Amino acid sequence: MLLEQLVNGITLGSIYAIVALGFTLVFGVLGIINMAHGEIFMVGAFVGVMTTSVLGWPLWLAFIASIVVTGILGYLLERITLRPLRGKKGVSHLAPLISTIGVSILLENLSHHIFGAGNQPFRSSFAEISIEIGSITIYLVQIVIFAISILLMIGLTIWLSKTKAGKALRATAENLETASILGVDTKKIITLTVIIASAMGGIAGILVGMAFNSVSPQMGLSMGLKGLAIIILGGMGNVKGAMAGGLILGLSETFLVAFGDSGYRDAIAFIMIIFILLLRPQGIFGSKIAEGR
Predict the structure, then answer these.
(1) pTM: predicted TM-score of the whole model, two decimal places
(2) Domain locations in the chain as residue ranges
């Protein structure tokens, strides 16, 4: 029982971590919380449902379709709702946040209109493949989810530290004007960042559908708030912190449901934030420098 809950907690935490990585990328570069990220994640999940259940495409094509659709949504989000506000005189620093909230409401309402308010089944034969290890049953999809989250974290870390585009992104995150003077195309870098973050949300959406066998238009709000909680928990703008925070939250929720009262499952994320902020205001992996920025 304990080991099974541990596996379930790691699986849930890995999904949370992938969602939080998208939040982390956008915050690290733009310094804003993208509240539309949860709904973009939800759209990715519904793309998975449409491609596998309705069109009958294989799962790998569903992933590609979700990445493409959510990447396009990320481009439109940056180009239409974020770029016009950036650097404009007299615009409140809260304006981009309000703008992304508006996009999130729009996407959720569109999903309600198109798919209805109820849960939609996500049918995948891959999700039914399991491995018996003694008395423990581990589903192959759980292994895949954990592997993808680790690969995304490692790949993102290497890309940020080793590649030219990654270094340009870090320079843009450090100081937009200085990076522009040094020859970095900051508009292109910012757009690329939002596209990558959104595509990661699309990947997470399909993984959630596979893990829980259903998706709904309401899933974006809950996942978005938990993603926000995770980046505060792990440290704002920190890739490793997003991964660690996701795993901590996933394990905490799973064990609370298994051995405590499931009614407090969603509240635990924000209870943990309160304690973390009291003990370490910058988050587990955050730095005081980042906090000052």
Answers:
(1) 0.85
(2) 2-292
